[in-house]
C-alpha cells in the first residue's frame, strides 16, 4: 500500500464525516493530532487504525477499530461523539459542547468482517 500524507488522511476524515452526517471536531490542533495518528497507523499497518487504540496485530483482528470504528455510530448517536472525539454529532458540535471520556465499546459489540 502506498504511504499516506496527513493531507490525504484529513480528506479521508472529512469525507467520512460528510458521508455519515457528522462534524469533525472543531479543535484544529486536536483534530490534526488525530489525523497524524491515523496517518502513522496507515503507514505502519496499511489501514486507518483508530489512533486512540492499540493494534491487536492484524487487519482482521483490528477490523472493528478501523476508522470509522464499529462503535462510532452508536457513540455519536448516544454520547455526541466517537471514542477518540474526531467525529461529532451535528447538534453536539453546534452546541459547542466539549467531548468527554466515554467507555470503550470495542469488546461490547460484534466485530464487523474484514
Write the layout of secondary structure elements.
Layout lengths: L5 H15 L2 E2 L3 H18 L13 H4 L9 H8 L7 E2 L1 H5 L20
Antiparallel strand pairs: 1-2
Helix pairs in contact: 1-2
Task: Describe what this molecule looks like in 3D.
By secondary structure, this protein is mainly alpha-helical. The chain has a single domain (6-94), classed as Ferredoxin thioredoxin reductase catalytic beta subunit (Ferredoxin Thioredoxin Reductase). The chain is built from five helices and two strands. It has a two-stranded antiparallel sheet with strand order 1-2. Helix 1 (6-20) crosses helix 2 (28-45). The longest helix has 18 residues, at 28-45. The radius of gyration is 13 Å and the shape is globular. The mean pLDDT is 93.
CATH architecture name: Alpha-Beta Complex
- Could you state the CATH homologous superfamily? Ferredoxin thioredoxin reductase catalytic beta subunit
Radius of gyration: 13 Å
Specify the structural class.
mainly alpha
Task: Please estimate the helix content.
Answer: 40-55%
Mean pLDDT: 93
Q: How far apart are the first and last residues' alpha carbons, in Å?
A: 16 Å
Order of helices and strands: HEHHHEH
Determine the CATH topology: Ferredoxin Thioredoxin Reductase
Please count the helical segments: 5
Low-confidence stretches: none
The biggest beta sheet is recorded as: 2 strands, antiparallel
Range of strand content: under 5%
Count structural domains.
1
Number of strands: 2
Strand order across the largest sheet: 1-2
- Tell the overall outline: globular
Amino acid at each position: 500500500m502506498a504511504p499516506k500524507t496527513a493531507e490525504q488522511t484529513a480528506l479521508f476524515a472529512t469525507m467520512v464525516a460528510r458521508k455519515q452526517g457528522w462534524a469533525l471536531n472543531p479543535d484544529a490542533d486536536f483534530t490534526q493530532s488525530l489525523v497524524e495518528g491515523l496517518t502513522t497507523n496507515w503507514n505502519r499497518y496499511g489501514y486507518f487504525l483508530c489512533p486512540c487504540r492499540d493494534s491487536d496485530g492484524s487487519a482482521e483482528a483490528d477490523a472493528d477499530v478501523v476508522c470509522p470504528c464499529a462503535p462510532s455510530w452508536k457513540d455519536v448517536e448516544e454520547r455526541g461523539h466517537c471514542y477518540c472525539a474526531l467525529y461529532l454529532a451535528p447538534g453536539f458540535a453546534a452546541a459547542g459542547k466539549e467531548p468527554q471520556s466515554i467507555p470503550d465499546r470495542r469488546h461490547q459489540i460484534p466485530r464487523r468482517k474484514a
